[in-house]
Amino acid sequence: MVPEKALPEIDSPTTGAHAPATDAWVEAVRDLFAPSGRLAQKLRDFTQRAAQQEMAVAVAHAIATRAILVAEAGTGTGKTFAYLAPALLSGKRTLVSTGTRTLQDQLFHRDLPRLTAALGVPVKRALLKGRNNYVCWFHLERNLEEGRFLEPETGGWLREIRRFARHSQSGDKSECATVPENAPAWSYATSTRDNCVGSECPHFDDCFVFRARREALDAELVVVNHHLFFSDQQIKEEGVAGLLPACDVVIFDEAHQLPDLLPHYYGESVSTFEALRLAHDARVELSTLGGDFRDGVAVVDRFEKTTRDVRLALPLTGTLRGTIADLPQSAPFVAALVTWQAAASAVHQALAAVAERTELLAKLAEKAKRFARALDTWQQAAPTGNGEEVFWFDASAHHLTLNRTPLTATEAVRDLIAASPAAWIFTSATLTVGGRFDHFRHQMGLTRITEKPSTAARWESPFDYRRQALLIVPDAIPEPNAAGHREAVAQVARRLATAANGRTLVLCTALAAMRAVAETLRTQGGTDDAPFVVLTQGDAPKETLLARFTTTPRAVLVASHSFWEGVDVVGEALSVVVIDRLPFAPPNEPLLAAQIARMKRAGSDPFLTIQVPRAATLLQQGAGRLVRSERDHGVLCICDVRLATRGYGKVLWSSLPPFRRSRSLAVAENFLRTLFPEPRETAAPSGVHSDGAP
Ligand code: SF4
C-alpha cells in the first residue's frame, strides 16, 4: 500500500524571530480561511479546508520572514487562494509566475478579481507577457504597407489584426478571436527586442508593449509566466528584470516545471526562422533609405538565400533533434554552415556602415553581429561538447535551430535567489518524489542558500482517493519494450472505455504509440451501433478537443505530451485515465544525454538521480488528470508492469496519491460498471475547478 504521508510535513523549521505584529498578521491570515472567516462569508461556494488554511499560514510566515517556502499542495487543496490571499493582504509588492500563458490569463482574469473582491482589498494588478504577445503598431503598419509575404493569407490576417488592435486596450493577441494564435501573420504584427525602436518609435505613446510594462512597474501585484521571468533575467530587457529588484514576494505556481526548463533559459539559440525575420526587417528598412542602399539589400538577399540553403543541406526529413555529433559532417552541410556564418557577418558589416541613419538599422546591425558570433561558436564547437554545455539542433520540415545549452543552471538560479531580499515561494501539486523534496531543492540550488531561512511543506489532497478511485497495473500486459505492448495498451483502453461507455483519456509517451492506439480504438472500439468517438491530439487545438471530449457521448481522447498537464475536466466526462508506459524521457534527448554522461563521469547514478525523479513528476501530473473534485470517481490504469516489478517502481507509485490498487483489469471493469451501470450519455458537464469551490 502507498504509505501514509504526514500532514503537513515540515522538512526544516523556519528561522528568525517574529515581531508580535507579524504573528498577529499571520493569525489574521489563518482567520481568513476559518469556517466563519471572511472567505466563507464572501464566497458562496467556499469550503473550509484545513490544508488550504495551513498553507496560507505557511505562505504568510514566509512573506513575513522573507524566507524560501517550497509548498506541495495536492489537487483540490486550493493552493491558488492559499498563496494569493496572504500576498494580497500583505500589501507587499508581489510577482506571481505561472507555467503557461493560459494559466496566467486564468489567474489574472478569473482568480484575482474574485479574491480581491472577497477580501475587499483594491490591489493594483497587472498582467505582463513576452513582447511577442502584443501587437506592435510600427511593424504591423510598415508590413501592411510593404505587403510582401510568403503566405498569401497573411495580408488578410494583418488587416484583421489591425481592426482588433484599434479597439483593444491591451493589444494582447490572446484576445484576438478572429486570427489564430499560430498564424504566421503574427510575426509581422509583433516585435522582437532586436527590431523594436523604443522611444524613437512614432507609435511609442500608444505602444502596447511599453504600456504593459508601465502598468507592471506601477502595480502592486504582477502576473508573469516562467518563460518571461527567466528569459528576461538573461537579456535584461527591462520587463521582469526591471521589476524584480523592487519585489518583496516572488511566487512560482506550477513550480515543478522549473528544474527541466531552467538550463534552456540560460543558453543561446539561433534559428533559420529568426534569420529570415532579420533579413526581412533589414530589407524593408534599407529600402526606405532609397537607391543608394541597393548593395546592402543585395547582402541581405544573399544572407536570406544562405539561410534557406542551410536547412536544405541538412539531409534529414521531418522533425528531428540531436547533438552536434549527430549532424552530418558531409561537405555540403559543413560548407552551408560556413557560408551562412560568412553571410551573417557581411550583413553585420553592411548594416553597421549605415547604423547611424536609423535606430532600427543600429539594432539590426547588433542582432546580425550576435547571430554571426553564435554561428562562429557553433563552428568552433567540438562534436563531443565541452563538458559544461551541449550543442544541439532541432530541425522541422522548414527550419533549423542551433542551441547551446548549459548542463545545469543551478548556480545561476541559486545566485539570483540568494541576492534577492524577497520571499520566494515555489508551489505545485507535484514537487516531491517518494515524499521527499530533495530532487527539486537540489535542482533549484535551494540546498545551498544560507542567506535566507528555508522551509518545505506538503499538504495532501482532500480527496478520498481510496474510495473515489482505483489504480491498476494490468498483470497480463507485456513489458513496454516487448512485441505486442502497443496492441495490448489499445485493448486495455478499449475494455475500460467500454465499461465506462467512453469517458476515457489515453495518455501516450510517444506520438507513434498515440496514433496506433487511436487507430485500434477507431476500428475496434465500441459496437457497430455505438462506436466510440475517438479524438486525437492534433485534430484540433487543445481547448477545442477538450470541449468536444467533455460534451460528446462515448468520447475517447488519445493524446501525447501536451495533455499530461493542464487538463482539468471535472465530473464524470473523464472517468478513466490510461497511461501507456512510465514516462521516462528518451535517454538520447540531447540535454538529458549530456547530463547523464556527466553524471556517469562523476561516478553518480543518473538513472536514480535524474531519470526516475523526472518520470515520477510527470507520472504524478498524468495521474492527476483523473480526480479533480470530491465528486469524481474513476480508474487510473498504468500499462507498465515495471511499476510493480522493478525496485524503482516503488519510488514512482509512492509518489502518487493513495489510490486503492489492483493488478486485475476485471476488477477495474467491475468498478466502472458500478459507476455506470447502464450505458448512458455523458450527463454531467465538465467545469473548471474554482479554488474556493468544493
Ligand atoms: S515601441 Fe517597439 S514594440 Fe512599440 S510599437 Fe514601436 S517598435 Fe513596436
TrEMBL record:
Recorded superkingdom: Bacteria
SUPFAM superfamilies (UniProt xref): P-loop containing nucleoside triphosphate hydrolases (SSF52540)
Cofactor dependence: [4Fe-4S] cluster
Reactions catalysed, as given in the entry: ATP + H2O = ADP + phosphate + H(+)
Helicase ATP-binding domain residues: 38-314
Pfam family, one: Helicase_C_2
Entry keyword set: ATP-binding, Helicase, Hydrolase, Nucleotide-binding
GO biological process: DNA repair
UniProt xrefs under InterPro entries: ATP-dep_Helicase_C, DEAD/DEAH_box_helicase_dom, DinG/Rad3-like, Helic_SF1/SF2_ATP-bd_DinG/Rad3, Helicase_ATP-bd, P-loop_NTPase
Plastid found in the keyword field: no
A GO molecular-function annotation: ATP binding
Enzyme nomenclature, EC number: 5.6.2.3
PANTHER family listed in its UniProt record: DNA REPAIR DEAD HELICASE RAD3/XP-D SUBFAMILY MEMBER, REGULATOR OF TELOMERE ELONGATION HELICASE 1
Similarity section: Belongs to the helicase family. DinG subfamily.
Name this protein carries in UniProt: DNA 5'-3' helicase
